[in-house]
Fold:
Amino acid sequence: MDSAGEVVNDGKITLEGFTVAARAFADKWKRHNLSFPPWSWIPLINRTMLKKEEGYLSLEKIIILSSLEESAEEESLDVTADWSEKEESVDLTVLVQNVEDEAHYYDYHIVYSASYMVPMLYFRGYSSDGKPLSLDVIKRDLPSSSVSLLLESKWTFITQEEHPYLNRPWFKLHPCGTEEWIKLLSESSSSDGCQIPVELYLVSWFSVVGQVVGLKIPREMLI
Amino acid sequence: MAANEEEAVKYVWEGAIPLQIHLHKSEVASHPPPPPALVLAPRIGYLPLLVHLIKPYFKDSLPPGEDSIWFDYKGLPLKWYIPTGVLFDLLCAEPERPWNLTIHFRGYPSNVLIPCEGEDSIKWNFVNSLKEAAYIINGNCKNVMNMSQSDQEDLWTSVMNGDLDAYTRLSPKIKMENIEDEFSRKASVSSPQSRQGGTEIDVAGQVKTARVPVRLYVRSVSKDFENLEDVPEMDTWDEISYLNRPVEFLRKEGSNFIILKMRCTVLMIFTWLYGKCFTLRDAIESLLPEYIRDRAQTSGEEGEQRTTDASDVSQETRGELKLVRIQGIEMKLEIPFSWVVNNLMNPEFYLHVSVLVKEPQR
Structure:
């Protein structure tokens, strides 16, 4: 196995490469994705180890309101249908309160897998009282395109597993096949078929993975 | 040496922990409360698989309702997907026999433990770990993905039943590449052709990197201790650093060339003399660089010629590896790592290592 440079040829990335790619990703996100809070780098430091250079990316407390999803066209149709059956005067304060009750909070962590040598996305959802959301509820917050992808594709399925560092159950996007589509991305994006520069590895990765969970990245980040 | 290695695997599969399982007092609905269940738990097995043996002891005492079973040791909820032997080695610094555990049939702590829906969850976890190990060893999971459904089932059943013979018959179907070094004879379990006297060496004499699946569980203490009994209890899993990452080592080809096709004992002597062996210590230090031992202090014990490093940092301020346990054995760290892997790994091809360390001082 070769590590000429930081990004190994076949779509995988080394730990050192991940650290570099993560910082580059966080910087670009901060500059170009102003509608979202920035990602934080959480170093792995504890009593046993001083791994300053190792860590993961964290984006927390992202609010997803089902009524605001673009794919919620069908849902909003249902909603209006409901309302038309109710009294004509709609109580606005009640409306606002309903929206808040439906607010789901999401945390996302991008963690390096030393086994598969690719990043992995861990996420969890919870309601405003902190109660964790089940996968069924979470699936309703995902873009409808993801849900069908989840059902059909072999690489985008979500499992409940323990977070590698936090000793809590999180959801994980299955990594198998990651290096294959990263390879495809790098082949199609550059004329001489070179591999993706390490600074863009996570950006490319997230341009695909983020879509599954409804997080889009602006095109400017891909440059 | 060859005969010993097959024996080692047998000992691993036959290893078991005597458990004394108490029903949690909040769930005792009968008077007098039921006596604890006594169960012999296979080291390579998983606690939820024992429920069918345990439940009969308590079924008359349980309150009505659905079961959601979990175990705790002195209040610490036990992660069901960690093999029983590993839990014991890690949580009982001083081995407790029988090991006293508490079983719960209600109140699953789902904020802390991932759900367990019986045998299916455990099987899924096993197959997933096997895929991950395959990816590490072979570079892809094709070998596992290509196994037929019935072969996967049979493999899982052999593990569940602790049936080494069945497992040995089935493991060639997994097509896992050999984790080889001069000492590996376990290769004979996964691939027939290395039953001959020699090891397979790349004739071009290249240096290859082997990746070995390892799960390292590190418990640390801040102060030194005289006896293992003095190691404080664990309150939360946050006190353990869990490292699920492969050990990478170079398989040195230089000295091998001379000793191609010789018997193992001779191989050992040659390699020891040339001092090129990758030991268990080397493996652990590669995962925990903060615990690299000062070489100046090792030359006396190991009887090898090493250049002494003039180091200003004394051993006290570095961290120290106090205890390394694999399959219940307190390991001598100078053992060749490849032997450890090939003989002491779990059926999913992972080597689980429990380590007790003294923290580095800062």
